[in-house]
Amino acid sequence: MGDRPAADSAYEEQARRTFPIDQSPEEYAARHAHEWVSFSFDDYRFSDERLDAWIQRLGDIFFRRNGAPSIHDLRRRFLTEEELAAVAQREGEEF
């Protein structure tokens, strides 16, 4: 943890607005991973320990670190068949 630079207050506020930490990082990843092209929030340390742990777990999931489950497995766990179909369609769209 000490090797990550501290997020400045503006970045910490952006993280608070971006991530619904009352939802698990696993469910968030299942529902939103396809919306991220790049993710670097986990490169920083946040003063809010709960937010910091949440973001680190999301980074683990996105980058398959520390035994994190795959996005595919999480989608099957959290999403309905209709939601899975919508994600598949969205992933097939070009940027």
Structure characterization notes:
This protein is mainly α and 95 residues long. It has one domain. 56% of the residues lie in helices and 0% in strands. The protein has 5 helices and no strands. The longest helix has 15 residues, at 49-63. The model has no long low-confidence stretch (mean pLDDT 95).
Question: What topology emerges from the helices and strands here?
Answer:
Elements: H1 9-18, H2 25-32, H3 49-63, H4 71-78, H5 81-92
Helix pairs in contact: 2-3, 2-4
In short, what is this structure?
It is built from five helices and no strands. The protein has 95 residues and is an all-alpha fold.
End-to-end separation in angstroms reads 34 Å
**Largest pleated sheet:** none
| Helical residues, percent | 55-70%
Give the helix/strand class.
Answer: mainly alpha
Number of strands: 0
Rg for CA atoms: 14 Å
Order of helices and strands: HHHHH
Percent strand: under 5%
Q: What do the pLDDT scores average to?
A: 95
How many helical stretches?
A: 5
- Low-confidence residue ranges: none
Instruction: Name the overall outline.
Output: elongated
